[in-house]
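ugh finaly. both done.
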Amino acid sequence: MGLRLRAIVLITAGLAAWLAGGLAVPGGSVPLGAALASESAGHAKADEGGEAKGSGGKKKKGEGGPAPLAVSLVIPVIRHQHLERQLTLLFVLDPSKPEARQTIIDSMPRLRSAYIMDLMGYLHLVSLEDSAAASEAIRARLMLVTDRTIGGGVVQSVYFQQISVRVF
């Protein structure tokens, strides 16, 4: 893929994520979408004032974690040698520390390839009828692939912004 085409794809993906309300600029506050607010894996949640609970209610300006990275994927679900469904995922990778963000950016081509290859083999085994169970299974699988590809502890969590399934 040419450099110019890659830049256009990255800008388009970033714009789509920003319009969806899930892409934060470095140094800015992280918007809390419905997927982030529903996450209950022991992460601190934010109240309406934007302050994290459990932090004493006071947060210094400029203090905060690294900005999350938006990823969008289109995964074909092939069963019995025909295209049955197409899954479109828009999700955010939450880096564990500021240095991890650059590691994720540098590894994004490998990550995208690993996600697509793994999910193409995995999604034909998962029932997509129960959306809550399917989204949790896909979230766990994305974390597993991320840890295998770039190492454990680099990505703190994965938050979905959109999951859509097109049936053919």
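ok and the 2nd:
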Amino acid sequence: MAKQFDRLRMLGGTASTMFALLAVAAVSACGGADDDGDAGSSGPVASASTQAVATESSSGGGGLASIESGSGTFSIDGQQFDADIVVRCLPFDASAFGGAAPNEADFDFSAATSDFANVVEGEVAFALPTFGPGAYEANQIRGFASRQGSSGVEQYESVAATDPDGNWLMNLEPQLVANGQPPTGEPMEFEIDGNHVRGAMTLEQNWPDGATGTVDIAFDLDLPAEAIDCSLRD
């Protein structure tokens, strides 16, 4: 989990990170066996929050009803799902692993169907410092998605960040922009209004190894006000 968080907030010398979705189990925080999201020969690994929600539902601990849930919808490649569970997770603190402690405004979220066949997660970091002549505070979101494909689990991931004007761009590297590179990237839709988050982004396949597919995800969610420590629930 620490590795994925450290990957996202790599801005100059600053590290931390965020986001995930898994078929048959998924949610926010981190998963996978290395910094590429590649879990090696053992296959993809559910994120901490993913494991948390799946465990809560299947371990006889009260199931979905025992989790304070928000509401909303999400879609994968245009197929829309009602979210049976929507949770807010405390952002992962990477300071113990050489990364940055989360900004107090940072948050993670996850939405899933009751059978956990489809899940969408988001990990959002605010006011991340960049270093260079054009230094500015960037915001970032990491999107992770996973579903059951015809030949097994397919996993997808992408990162978006804001440029100096506050525009959300896919695959933007804020540190390069701060050092004089143009802020190139595909525009991304993302809005936060209190506990309501909505957005859409294209994720690139990173599992199985060598796969090159993409999926388009969208989400429109009302998050619960209280965040849970998903890292302690797997």
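summary for the 2nd one i guess: Residues 1-65 have pLDDT under 50 and may be disordered.
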